[in-house]
From TrEMBL, chain A:
Any one cellular-component term (Gene Ontology): plasma membrane
Keywords on record: Cell membrane, Membrane, Transmembrane, Transmembrane helix
TM region(s), chain numbering: 39-59, 90-112, 119-142, 162-180, 187-204, 210-229, 250-278, 290-310
One GO MF term attached to the UniProt entry: transmembrane transporter activity
Lineage: superkingdom: Bacteria
Subcellular localization: Cell membrane
Chief localization: membrane
Entry protein name: Rhamnose ABC transporter membrane protein
Classification via CDD domains: TM_PBP1_transp_AraH_like
Lineage: Bacteria, Pseudomonadati, Pseudomonadota, Alphaproteobacteria, Hyphomicrobiales
Membrane topology: Multi-pass membrane protein
InterPro entries in the record: ABC_transp_permease (IPR001851)
UniProtKB/TrEMBL annotation, chain B:
Superkingdom of origin: Bacteria
Membrane topology of the entry: Multi-pass membrane protein
Entry function: Part of the ABC transporter complex LsrABCD involved in autoinducer 2 (AI-2) import. Probably responsible for the translocation of the substrate across the membrane.
Complex and partners: The complex is composed of two ATP-binding proteins (LsrA), two transmembrane proteins (LsrC and LsrD) and a solute-binding protein (LsrB).
Main localization category: membrane
InterPro entries in the cross-refs: ABC_transp_permease (IPR001851)
GO CC terms, sorted: plasma membrane
Compartments (UniProt record): Cell membrane
Region (Disordered): 1-20
Protein name listed in UniProt: Autoinducer 2 import system permease protein LsrD
Length: 329, 342
């Protein structure tokens, strides 16, 4: 299994490298380190969200409410910053993470304690959280001149040549890698999705593992809420509409099995970068940005086909197939 | 052991014992059924609405209110079958966008009403066939596949239309979304009623309908019973595509224009309608009658809130809450019953 995962990651690195090389023949400078750093910075928020989504998917669940969570939290911190310009930034970031975690905990609680299927819970909370963002703001925008300069500039500050936004993504990548491969929670997440029956026998509380996966996903969405609002210097109700699908797409492309239990932090990173490279390349090579949606659609479908074949080759078809049905239902 | 099965097999509202078996059902049991409960809710909302606004109780006003749900309900009928069979289609709204775009492009070329309807329906069928081939042919999980095709179908609309819109539909094309059959009964409402009856018969009174329930309850057993599981699923995706095509004809005709963002978020409302109608999201149980009543409930709620000047996005909070609460309540009730029974 491990070899297969490595194989998939090397393959993705290869595809991304070929794409970058191909694009640079059309647009000189696309493969320049500075441009690649730009793409990474541009993709940072997607990477952070994909890592949260991945943890949830590992436990055989799905979180469709991340983008709505991001919109609500982003709106909440932006309005707080606009209303109380004196508040230190640390407090606002902590606030964003806690609001996000609280919204994630609502999802997790409904999945854990009431045992509603995750897709139904998060479809519901998706509309509720975005509706709450409207109720909170009354439909008004928070524009850049209303927010304090520290609030807006922090993710942009360069440290060792990279903006802080990129460093945040890198730190979270490392933390997530440690969490998923070096802690009991990580083991439990893989076990809960890979084989729930065996996990219960091994003494793992699947419901609790899912709950914490949702809290983690929510916390990362909350942090992303602040990052998004400060990066684009505006907060409104429809911020990041539909972005939850991009996070799922990044995971699927990165080889994280939608049936749970399979996937790596590296895969999620590469899946997100794959989408990031395409997104940044389209305007460069003169394709209408309107084509982006269709392209990510095709990529998702191809990635699912590819995943299914890879998993089939590994000789685990019966388990995977059953798992897939349970999630899809 | 019971702990185990609770995790792996009943992780949700699985009301499997309610597979409809109307013949000889005691009246007391019928009164406790989900459909009757929901009907009661619909009546309460209806009465509340008529108190809330003096304009509510008017035949033409009520007729207007039905437009809130007829198109979504048409999709929900097919979606209900799909969910009962244990699959889901999140691309329905994107199919509407693509079918509407195809019709719009055809209308610009001067194709007549009959041709437009043909193009709308066949686009729906084609999209359904793609979903069906991916899910039942390649045996992929339907939730990711249809998230992908959702992006793909709507993405094609965006490529074709960008930020522009199609208009200039033939005049008689307007009948499907704006015409009335008799008095205040619109074409859409009559179509909705006819489709409800057809779907009810197919699901509850034919072999095909029975096979859908068997697949949803135990796909493994269905295969061993000689049910062509993949073929049934393929037909269901095809049917969902066709219904989305029909909904696209009605919606495009009603709006008289096409934008790539048409019917945004409808997949959510269709799924909500299905689940609210008592269909188990895990498959194997549900009725068309329930979906019909759920359609009325959702239509009345949004119309009533609209009369009270509640903005659309706030209504969506109610829809989301409705979805979660209607699923959570029976589970909590069952748990309380179980606890007191001990």
């Amino acid at each position: 299994m491990n070899r297969l995962l490595k194989h998939r990651e090397i393959l993705l690195v290869g595809i991304i490298a070929i794409m970058v090389a191909g694009f640079s023949t059309r647009a000189a400078g696309f493969a320049m380190p500075s441009n690649l750093a730009n793409i990474f910075n541009d993709t940072s928020i997607l990477i952070i969200l994909a890592l949260g989504q991945m943890t949830v998917i590992l436990t055989k669940s799905i979180d469709l409410s991340v983008a709505a969570n991001l919109a609500f939290t982003g709106m909440a911190v932006a309005m707080t910053d606009a209303a109380f310009p004196g508040l230190p930034l640390v407090l606002l970031v902590v606030m964003a993470i806690s609001i996000g975690a609280a919204l994630g905990a609502i999802n997790g609680y409904l999945v854990w304690a009431i045992q509603i299927p995750p897709i139904v819970v998060t479809l519901g909370t998706l509309t509720i959280y975005r509706g709450m963002a409207f109720v909170l703001s009354g439909g008004a925008w928070v524009n850049s001149h209303q927010m304090t300069p520290t609030f807006l500039n922090f993710p942009r500050l360069p440290v060792l040549g990279l903006p802080i936004l990129s460093w945040i993504a890198i730190v979270i990548l490392l933390l997530m890698w440690g969490l998923l491969t070096r802690t009991a929670f990580g083991r439990a997440a893989y076990a809960a999705g890979g084989n729930p029956t065996a996990a219960v026998y091994a003494g793992i509380d699947i419901g609790r593992t899912r709950f914490f996966a949702f809290v983690l996903s929510g916390a990362l969405a909350g942090l992303s809420g602040y990052l998004w609002v400060s990066r684009y210097a505006v907060a409104y109700v429809d911020v990041a509409a539909g972005f939850e699908l991009d996070t799922v797409a990044a995971c699927v492309i990165g080889g994280i099995s939608i049936a749970g239990g399979i996937g790596s932090v590296g895969g999620a990173l590469l899946g997100a970068l794959f989408l990031g490279v395409i997104k940044n390349a389209l305007p460069v090579i003169g394709i209408s940005p309107f084509a982006q949606m269709a392209i990510s659609g095709i990529v998702i479908v191809l990635a699912v086909v590819f995943n299914a074949r890879a998993e089939r080759r590994a000789g685990r078809i019966i388990l995977r197939d059953r798992g897939a049905k349970e999630v899809s239902a | 052991m019971s702990d185990l099965s609770a995790e792996t097999h009943t992780a949700g509202p699985r009301a499997r014992q309610t597979i409809p078996d109307r013949l000889g059902t005691p009246v007391s049991r019928m009164l406790g059924s989900w459909e009757v409960l929901l009907f009661g809710v619909a009546v309460v909302i209806f009465i509340a609405n008529s108190f809330a606004s003096p304009y509510f109780l008017n035949a033409w006003n009520l007729s207007d209110a039905t437009f809130n749900f007829t198109e979504k309900a048409m999709i929900a009928f097919a979606m209900a079958m799909l969910v009962i069979a244990g699959e889901i289609d999140l691309s329905v709204a994107a199919i509407i966008a693509l079918a509407s775009t195809a019709m719009g492009a055809a209308a610009q070329m001067g194709i007549g009403t009959a041709g437009l309807v043909g193009i709308g329906l066949s686009t729906g069928l084609l999209c359904g066939a793609i979903n069906g081939a991916l899910v039942s042919g390649l045996k992929l999980p339907s939730i990711v596949v249809t998230i992908g095709t959702m992006s793909l179908f709507r993405g094609i609309s965006y490529i074709v239309l960008g930020d522009k819109a199609y208009g200039n539909y033939p005049e008689d094309f307007a009948y499907f979304g704006q015409g009335y059959v008799v008095w205040a009964f619109s074409f859409e409402f009559v179509l909705f009623a006819v489709l409800a009856v057809i779907f009810g018969i197919v699901l509850h009174a034919t072999n095909f309908g029975r096979q859908i329930f068997v697949i949803g309850n135990n796909e493994f057993a269905a295969r061993f019973s000689g049910i062509p599981v993949e073929r049934v699923k393929f037909i269901l995706f095809l049917l969902t595509g066709l219904m989305s095509g029909i909904a696209a004809v009605c919606l495009t005709s009603r709006l008289g224009s096409t934008r790539p963002s048409i019917a945004q978020g409808w997949e959510l409302e269709a799924v909500t309608m299905v689940v609210l109608g008592g269909v188990s999201i895990l498959g194997g149980a549900g009725t068309i009658a329930g979906v019909v009543i759920a359609a009325f409930v959702m239509g009345l709620v949004t119309f009533g809130l609209g009369l009270l000047n509640v903005p659309g996005i706030v209504m969506s909070i109610f829809v989301g809450l409705l979805l979660i609460i209607t699923i959570a309540l029976p589970i909590i009730a069952r748990r309380i019953k179980y606890a007191s029974g001990k």
